[in-house]
Write a structure and sequence with these properties.
26 strands; Rossmann fold; Glutamine Phosphoribosylpyrophosphate, subunit 1, domain 1; 22% strand; 3 domains; alpha/beta; eight-stranded antiparallel β-sheet; 19 helices; 611 residues
């Protein structure tokens, strides 16, 4: 959600900023812009509504010669997506320019005060307030970074911020509060970004800013300060992936590429973590708190969106096999309750990006109340990864498509490993541990078998893509998968879809079933299979079109529908990993036939870093 790029160095800034903005397109945005410090300390800015290509057209053949600048992709919050509301924003004199991710909650109060002091505003945004506030503070403070610190102390909210000024032409100031920001350290150059993908072609050496930290970059190098203007010691870290991992590699869309990457993604998530002969999971990231984990008597999982649904599957796993009472909470609601937490409670945060604002806030609330905190995160060095007591990385490389696919199946796989780890600490037998470990190791191969059915799923998507209403039904482990299937269809094809626990159909939703309302029934041959068959019969009795997903070798279901997708047999707790892949493919192909912008769905962002 929104993207930031900044550059200070020996190269021309504009091409680097544009390249970085293109790398950030996947995050979701509706307008964009950049500002470059040119000769005579003048800053020139260009903005546009829509894609980066529109910004490039606007710049055209104009020569933007300058070695320092900042760029931004905006996802509208305060004010419509217009050129005036697009970033960067400036002060009254056009000397101070900045880009901002986040929300300034007290912007109206600050704006009213600044207007009384004579400041004139050009946009409807909360961000512009910061430019004018820094301008006002610089009347009292000599240095740009001091003015930024003073301004931020008066602002309330979240920010990832890059500021440049014609008054100090060889300086860039970056600041972070609950919105991701990192500084890339190159050879005689520095890059600032909200996401490593924007800078990884230039350097893999980065400094991750923490909340309340300010990066001051100039000809003398990089200094990190806190809001008390005191220096903070920071380590330079290394990004462990390269840009090739975010290329499409011949696939039409990132979403399709990432669906087909799932066998290798699961291999990476499992590598070195399954000890089949002993029926154990080896999870180095949580070994340091192993003894504390033995004592927990309650687990709360917090997450948002698709990660929340992974947590719901994990709830079934952990309660059935590890015997740990588990709750799954929307992170967006967690801190607005009064959650009862103690030292025997563990909070598990699940987030692909590790920067999800609501999940991060829930984590911080749990830490304040003394609970142990754990994380399942894909991005190394992300905020959640750094702030939890212990955790497990997915190790699947960047996920670019807005609709999560390989991250979701990896999260399910990691939750299965965590379940095995905790269960073997408790009552699970050696034999059961061996069986689960053996089945987990089979997941990459079994997902390949599911993907081999993609052409059949494509035909089904073509047959049904014109329908505007869908039910996805499942029970037990596949109840959250039904919701995830509906979510994927909504996200990328804009078809109305609802996921339901199949047992709830007769409590109201079945009133909608008819010849124009498609039902996608998840009916693998598991402990609730016969219950699902009863639900399918209810749909058929009302002439509802039906697609069924079941286990290979099941012929009974052919009596109810010809439209069947088969998945390989595995133990019940792992069926969600296999059953969700056909739903991902179905959503993708439906969106393809409907000519939707699959990798950049309207109104959506990849990483939701504001509430």
């Amino acid at each position: 959600m929104c993207g930031i790029v900044g550059y200070l160095g020996k190269q021309q800034a504009a091409p680097i900023l544009l390249e970085g903005l293109k790398r950030l397109e996947y995050r979701g945005y509706d307008s964009c812009g950049l500002a470059v410090l040119r000769k005579k300390n003048k800053i020139q800015a260009f903005k546009s509504v829509g894609r980066i290509s529109e910004l490039e057209k606007k710049i055209g053949n104009k020569k933007l010669i300058g070695f320092i600048g900042c760029g931004h992709t905006r996802w509208a919050t305060h004010g419509a997506p217009t050129e005036k509301n697009a970033h960067p924003h400036s002060d009254c004199q056009g000397k101070i320019w900045l880009v901002h991710n986040g929300i300034i909650e007290n912007y109206q109060e600050l704006k009213n005060k600044l207007e009384k002091l004579g400041h004139k505003f050009k946009s409807q945004t909360d961000t512009e307030v910061l430019a004018h506030l820094i301008e006002e503070e610089q009347k009292k403070e000599k240095k740009l970074e001091e003015a930024v610190i003073s301004a931020l102390k008066k602002a309330r909210g979240t920010f990832g911020l890059v500021v440049i000024s014609g008054n100090e032409p060889n300086k860039m100031v970056a600041a972070r509060q609950s919105s991701p920001l990192l500084i890339g350290v190159g050879s005689g150059e520095y890059l600032v970004a909200s996401d490593a993908s924007a800078i990884v072609t230039h350097t893999k050496k980065v400094v991750y800013l923490d909340d309340g930290e300010i990066g001051v970059i100039n000809g003398d190098g990089l200094r990190i300060l806190n809001l008390d203007n005191r220096e903070v010691a920071k380590k330079i870290q290394e990004i462990d992936w390269n840009i090739e991992k975010v290329q499409k590699e011949g696939y039409a869309h990132f979403m399709l590429k990432e669906i087909f990457e799932q066998p290798s993604a699961l291999e990476n998530s499992l590598r070195g973590r399954v000890i089949e002969e002993e029926g154990l999971a080896k999870l180095g990231g949580i070994e340091g708190v192993e003894n504390k984990l033995k004592k927990i008597d309650r687990l709360i999982i917090v997450a948002c969106g698709t990660a929340y649904l992974a947590g719901q599957v994990g709830e079934y796993m952990l309660e059935e096999y590890a015997g740990i009472p588990t709750e799954v909470e929307y992170a967006s609601e967690f801190r607005y309750r009064k959650p009862i937490l103690n030292k025997k409670t563990a909070l598990l945060c699940i987030s692909q990006s590790g920067e999800t604002a609501d999940t991060l806030a829930a984590l911080q609330e749990a830490k304040r109340k003394g609970a142990m905190t754990l994380g399942i995160v894909n991005v190394v060095g992300s905020s959640i990864a750094r702030q939890t007591d212990a955790g497990i990385y997915n190790h699947i490389g960047p996920e670019i498509g807005v609709a999560s696919t390989k991250a979701f199946t990896s999260q399910l796989c990691v939750l299965a490993l965590l379940t095995l780890f905790l269960a073997r600490q408790r009552q699970m037998s050696y034999v059961m541990g061996q069986r689960i470990a053996r089945e987990i190791k089979q997941m990459p191969e079994l997902t390949k078998q599911v993907l081999a059915e993609s052409s059949k799923i494509r035909k089904l998507a073509k047959k049904y893509c014109a329908f505007e209403d869908f039910f996805f039904l499942g029970r037990k482990y596949n109840f959250p998968i039904a919701i995830e299937g509906a979510l994927k269809l909504k996200e990328v094809s804009y078809i109305h879809a609802e996921g339901y626990g199949a047992g709830e159909m007769k409590h109201g939703p079945i009133a909608l079933v008819g010849k124009d309302f498609v039902t996608f029934a998840l009916a693998p041959q598991d402990s609730v299979y016969h219950k699902m068959i009863s639900n399918i019969q209810e749909i058929k009795a009302r002439q509802g079109p039906l697609i069924a997903l079941t286990t290979k070798g099941n012929n009974e279901i052919k009596k109810m529908t010809r439209d069947i997708i088969y998945i390989p047999k595995t133990i019940e707790m792992l069926t969600p990993i296999l059953s969700v892949i056909p739903l991902q493919l179905f959503a993708y192909y439906a969106a393809l036939f409907r000519r939707c912008d699959i990798d950049k769905p309207k109104n959506l962002a990849k990483s939701v870093t504001v509430e």
